[in-house]
Amino acid sequence: MNLAEIVKAAGIVGAGGAGFPTYVKLDAKAEYFIVNAAECEPLIETDKYMTRTFADKLVLGIMMISRHLQASKAVIALKGKYKDEIKALEDSIAKNHAQIEIFRMKTFYPAGDEQIIVQQVTGKCVPERGLPLQVGAVVSNVATVIGVYDAVTSGRNVCDKYLSVVGEVQEPVMLKVPIGTSVRECIEAAHPVISDYRIILGGPMMGKVISDAAVIDTLVVNKTLGNIIVLPADHFLIKKSQVGMERLKHQARSACIQCRMCTDLCPRYQTGHRIRPHLVMRNVWREGLIEDTAEFEKNFGDAVNCSSCGLCEMFSCPMGLSPRRVNDYMKGKLRERGINPEKNLTPMARESIELSKVPTDRLIARLNLSKYNGLHAHTCIELKPEEIMIPMSQHIGKPAIPVKQAGDMVEINELVGRADETGLSANIHCGIQGRVMEVTPAGIKVKRSKEA
Ligand code: SF4
Ligand code: SF4
User: Fold this and answer.
1) For residue 17, what pLDDT is reported?
2) 276 Cβ below 6 A of ligand 1
């Protein structure tokens, strides 16, 4: 099997974001292979932990993938302030005689946005709604590269996950858990210091807010979950997520002062994409009055280029408005009307790009998260849950198809869901030894064997 086939068999998907199957990305040749170790979102430290703990695996994994892509430039991009991680990488690069550049980034948000990393490393801007490969780059994150190394060297499939738990907990923890472990069990392992908590899956800017305790009970760890934030029910981020769209539209109409800070600080605008959230905010009140398709596109078409990074609503807007959510809403309206604006395939970064970077510390203060900032997980705890519920859909595309039945025994690393070959999909494997208790199209429940 070649590298892409091994990666496909192992069920490796992008370990952050939406879970794009990695084998598809590897079906290419590229000038650059870039590892995104910038850990974009405030408070998350999973990539940092993995970089300094598994520096050798990361470096050797980069060498494997770069060779496969025939990339002439292998780069690992991380924040310049990550001294311990840079030292670990430098040592490993020297030991393994690797040709890998360490690219030191400033501490700003969103440093870990794939398109921003590509612009910073290569000087080229990815086309609107495009892929890094269009400018000769393939980007992967830390856990993905380590997963590739493990798959090639030891046949290890993706069946467990490193993630951090931060916020209202005794102290932040790093966990290693089988995929399918209950999110509640992960939170309990970090000893929450409040009982009536809400959570964010992922980071505070782009993560998913879960404010219903009953829903938290149903959640399990999947291939893309790298962090859980535990917060009080009345925290600013929880409250902000609960404001309805009608209210947001009304606020835009009555309170937007057209200062255009949302546009000027927008990372996509700064990479030359056509996006001007202040115009969408100016016109949102008359959305229902515009029937003409061309007129609708003229007023709201920019919204399709929004990455939903959240900077405009969490930092830039002095009036506390929500251009991101209005853009998300408008994307839906554009789809409904069948409008797909033309893409700018040759965007150029604006001269102001370096001056518009938002320092992460200031963002953290604005998010009311300063009390959790600077606290670090010191050790990694390995959880061994009695039962796991392995989802069949942990990736972009079609869910995997279960290949086990209730009553079957299953081993660690064994295939339990086969990628649906009729479309984009990914294999799913089991992280514990035990018996299959239940199989539904959504997932497979496995109970740990007593002797395991
Ligand atoms: S969320 Fe706001 S800042 Fe981010 S890309 Fe969209 S408009 Fe720009
Ligand atoms: S930053 Fe806020 S007030 Fe200023 S133009 Fe944008 S939405 Fe309006």
Assistant:
1) 73
2) no
Cβ of 110 less than 6 Å from ligand 1: no
Q: Does residue 311 have its Cβ closer than 6 Å to ligand 2?
A: no
3-state class percentages of the chain: helix first, strand second, coil last, to nearest 5: 40, 20, 40
Query: Domain extents for the chain?
Result: 3-154, 159-235+369-385, 245-366, 386-452
Helix (H) and strand (E) counts for the chain?
18, 19
> Which CATH topology does 245-366 take?
Fumarate Reductase Iron-sulfur Protein; Chain B, domain 2 (1.10.1060)
Q: Could you give the CA distance from residue 420 to residue 166 in angstroms, rounded to a whole number?
A: 35
- Smallest CA-to-CA distance from 162 within 225, 245, 69 is with 225
Confirm or reject: Cβ of 321 under 6 Å from ligand 2. yes
pLDDT of residue 403: 96
User: For residue 306, how far is its CA from the centre of ligand 1 (angstroms)?
Assistant: 5
Ligand 2 mean position, distance from CA 346 (Å): 27
Mean pLDDT, 10 residues at a time, the chain of 452 residues: 94 86 94 94 91 97 97 97 96 98 96 95 97 96 96 97 96 96 97 96 96 94 96 95 94 95 98 97 94 95 97 97 97 96 96 94 95 85 97 94 96 97 96 96 91 58
**What pLDDT, on the 0 to 100 scale, is given for residue 451?**
62
- Taking the alpha carbons at both ends of the chain, their separation in whole angstroms is 31
Query: What does the pLDDT read at residue 15?
Result: 79
Q: Which residue has tokens 């064997």?
A: 449
For the CA of 255, the nearest atom of ligand 2: 3
* Beta strands 434-439 and 428-429, pairing class: unpaired
Q: What is the pTM of this model?
A: 0.94
The reported pLDDT for the residue numbered 181 is 98
User: What is the distance in A from the centroid of ligand 2 to the CA of 276?
Assistant: 10
- Name the CATH superfamily housing domain 3-154: NADH-ubiquinone oxidoreductase 51kDa subunit (3.40.50.11540)
117 Cβ below 6 A of ligand 1:
no
326 ligand 2 Cβ < 6 A: no
